[in-house]
Specification:
3 domains; 18 strands; 25% strand
Length: 421
């Protein structure tokens, strides 16, 4: 806590003043967390001073707010390209990330509990910089960070604003930001070191070294490619659900199982079901084999029933038998997209809507997949198939917009070919 206060004061996050008339200061609280490594050991103890942003009034204390995160398809695509071209992968972390954002609104906050000095009890903190918990904190941080990168020669992708690229001669570097976690991929290690020095001069950096654990995804690299899994996260779900000692299942869901909103009785505690399904949704980042089952279970979040919980427990039993299963991004893949699509006509017994399912490969590497109920009722199986194909084409079109990377890599491949000849 003392280190957190020291960091806030060193960053000139606030100044002490008396509260003006008509301005009510927002509260703050301390939040504690134990950060763990991928193997479950303790990395460090973390403390944050968080403003009670839920008391802010829109139009007075903030105007615009959003939390920009990278699309997981983008993460998998960058890793697949890194596997193909043997790029260097590095991970960075920004210390006290939201404190770097500049505030444009006049916001007052009460003094942190336990750190009010004698004579300061009647004073408040006038915030000069963004702080964790504020509605606009994430927006202000990203605005500052993206502006810094663009001024350094990076180009922001229009299809995914969290991706930045820079090409200088034969050197190529891609930077992907997910709030305060940064993934860097490049064919030039010197360019990565230069970027680290630049970012460290602007922000307080923590170099996490070669990419091994990113957003709960365990990344293992070998001569054959890159494997992605969420083994630690899967075991945490099983432990929290009390299913570590359960029997395993060979399939995530029984064949031809049709769940409905009208069967059996409601659960007494729907919160546990909602938490479980929400965590399973995040597990599908590297588990396409459970995407359909989780998609079905997520349709009953409002009023879950006992049969829905039994189906969710079966998914957990399947995960228990395959906790380390994930996807493999082969180095033998080429810059060639191919897609497979199908539809389950009128699969939902309640709404008679169809389910779209597709998967997209970068040659041999699976980078995108989806299982989702269609928004309208299809009157024939042909119409359901057409809607599925339209959704897949939209995803392919979005992926093709990475043409700036593809064009550069194709040029590099051609140069290598000429040199070899």
């Amino acid at each position: 806590m003392a280190a957190e206060i020291a960091a806030l004061e060193a960053n000139q996050t606030w100044e002490l003043t008396t509260p003006p008339n008509g301005k009510s200061p927002i509260g703050c609280r301390w939040v504690y967390k134990v950060k763990l490594r991928s193997d479950g050991t303790i990395e460090r103890y973390k403390t944050r001073l968080v403003a009670k942003g839920y008391t802010q009034l829109e139009g007075f204390d903030y105007y615009d707010t959003f939390s920009l995160v990278a699309k997981m398809v983008t993460v998998r695509t960058i890793l697949a390209l890194a596997s193909i071209f043997n790029w260097h992968l590095t991970q960075l972390d920004i210390n006290n990330v939201f404190l770097h954002g500049d505030l444009h609104e006049e916001i007052y906050m009460s003094l942190p509990l336990g750190f009010a000095k004698q004579g300061e009890n009647k004073q408040v903190c006038k915030l000069l910089k963004s702080l964790y918990g504020l509605k606009q904190a994430s927006r202000q941080w990203f605005s500052k960070f993206s502006g810094t990168l663009i001024s350094h020669g990076f180009i922001q992708f229009a299809t995914d604003h969290s991706l930045f690229t820079k090409i200088s001669g034969s050197s190529f570097i891609a930077l992907l930001v997910y709030v305060d976690d940064i993934l860097i991929a490049s064919n030039d290690m010197n360019a990565i070191e230069e970027l680290k020095l630049f970012l460290d001069s602007k922000f307080k950096l923590k170099d996490l070294g070669p990419l091994k654990y990113f957003l709960g995804i365990e990344i293992a690299r070998s001569a054959n490619g890159i494997s992605l899994s969420q083994r630690k996260y899967a075991l945490e779900i099983l432990e929290d659900s009390g299913m570590l000692g359960s029997k395993t299942q060979k399939f995530a869901m029984e064949q031809n199982l049709k769940l409905s909103k009208m069967e059996e009785t409601l659960l007494d505690n729907p919160t546990a079901y909602r938490r479980l399904v929400s965590r399973l949704i995040y597990l599908t980042i590297t588990r396409p084999d459970i995407s359909y089952s989780v998609q079905v279970l997520s349709q009953f979040m409002d009023k879950p029933r006992h049969t829905h919980l039994a189906a969710a427990n079966r998914v957990l039993q399947y995960v228990k038998g395959t906790p380390g299963q994930g996807i493999f991004l082969s180095f033998k893949s080429k810059l060639h997209l191919k897609a497979f699509v199908d539809a389950d006509w009128a699969g939902c017994v309640d709404t008679r809507r169809s389910v779209t399912g597709f998967c997209i490969f970068l040659r041999d590497s699976l980078i995108s997949w989806r299982s989702k109920k269609q928004t309208t009722v299809s009157r024939s199986s042909a119409e359901a198939e057409y809607r599925s194909m339209a959704s897949t084409v939209c995803e392919l079109t979005w992926l093709v917009h990475y043409s700036r990377i593809y064009m550069y890599l194709t040029l590099i491949q051609f140069c290598y070919f000429v040199i070899a000849k």
